[in-house]
Amino acid sequence: MNEIHLSNNQKELIEKFGVFLESKGWQPAIARVLGLLMISDTNELTFDQIREVLHLSKSATSSALNFLLNTNKIEYITKTGERKRYFRIRQIMFEDILKEEQDMRHKFISVLKEVHELKESKNLNGLCETIKDVIDYLEFTNNHLPKLYAEWVSNRRK
Amino acid sequence: MNEIHLSNNQKELIEKFGVFLESKGWQPAIARVLGLLMISDTNELTFDQIREVLHLSKSATSSALNFLLNTNKIEYITKTGERKRYFRIRQIMFEDILKEEQDMRHKFISVLKEVHELKESKNLNGLCETIKDVIDYLEFTNNHLPKLYAEWVSNRRK
DNA sequence: CTTTTGGTTCTGCAAATACAGAACTAAAAG
DNA sequence: CTTTTAGTTCTGTATTTGCAGAACCAAAAG
Description:
2 copies of one chain form a homodimer.
Chain A: H1 8-23, H2 28-39, E1 45-46, H3 47-54, H4 58-70, E2 74-78, E3 85-89, H5 93-120, H6 127-156
Antiparallel strand pairs in A: 1-3, 2-3
Helix pairs in contact in A: 1-2, 2-4, 3-4, 5-6
Chain A binds a DNA duplex (30 and 30 nucleotides) through residues 27-29, 46-48, 56-63, 65-66, 83-85.
C-alpha cells in the first residue's frame, strides 16, 4: 500500500495549519488534507495515503478532496497505466487565498456603502462620517494593492 | 418602554451586514446587535430597545452585548439619575476590524514560515519556492500598509 | 418591607456540523 | 465470471452551536 510517514514536526505543523484554517471557517478534515499536501515530503499523494496518515474515513477523504478540487486548491495527476489519482497542491492556491481576502474587503466596502447612503440621506452625522472614512480608506488601499504587487514583482528576483 | 422603529430598508441592511459578519465567523445574534447599533437612527440604544427590535431573549441580548463590550466593539454611556445603560458603537471599532485582518495575515505568515523552514532543511524544491514567495509578498505588503495609511491620512481632508 | 427595573447566570434543547461506517459502483485485473 | 482497486454516495450519529426560558440578583422606587 506504500504508506507515507510523517515526523512529529510535520504532524504538529499540519495541526497548526489546520487550526489556522479552522479559524478562517474551514472544516477540520479539509484543513488537514490541505495541510498534509503542503507539508508532506512527497508532493503528490494518493487517496489512500491521505486517508491513512490522517486517520480519516473514506467518505471524509473523498468529500475533502472533492471540495478542494472544486475550489481549485488542489489538482491531481495520473500516471500511465495506473487508475489512481495523485493529488497535489495547486501553486496558484496562495494567490487565490489572497484574492479571497480582497473579495472579502470588497463585500465589506459594499455593505458599508449601503449603510452610509442610508445614513447620509437622513443627515445623521457622527458615525456617518466615520463610515465614510473607512470606506474611503478601504478603497484607497484596494486601489494601491495592485501597484504594490507590481513593485514587489519587479524587486524580488535580483 | 420607548421602543424604536426600523424601516424595512434598515431591517434588510442589518440582516445583510449580519450575514457578512457571519461569513467572518461571527455568531448571528451578535452580528445583528452590532449591525443595529450601526444602522439605527438613534446612536445609543438601551438593553430593552435592542432586545425588542431584534426579537432576542434577555440572555442572548446580554451575552451579545457583553461580548461586544469585551472585544471593544461597543461601549456604553449612562445618564444622570438613570440606572440603565445606553450602548453605542465605538468609533475605533472599524480600525480594530482592519487590525484583526492584519493579525490574521501575521498568523498566516508565521505558519508559512514554519512550513518553509521545514521544507528548506530537506532541500525540497517546488512548493518551497512558492511558499517563500508568498511569505515575501505578505511581508512586503504588511510593511507598506502603514505608509499607505499615512499617505491616505495626509490626502483626505483637503 | 415589597415591587419594579435592569440586567446576569444556569439549564435545556433544536438545529447545524462534521465525520464514521457501510453499502454501493464502475473499471480493471485475474 | 469473479475479485480487486479506487473511489462515491447514503445513512446515522456524536458533538458543537446558538439561542430561549426561567430562575436569580442587586439597586432603586413605592
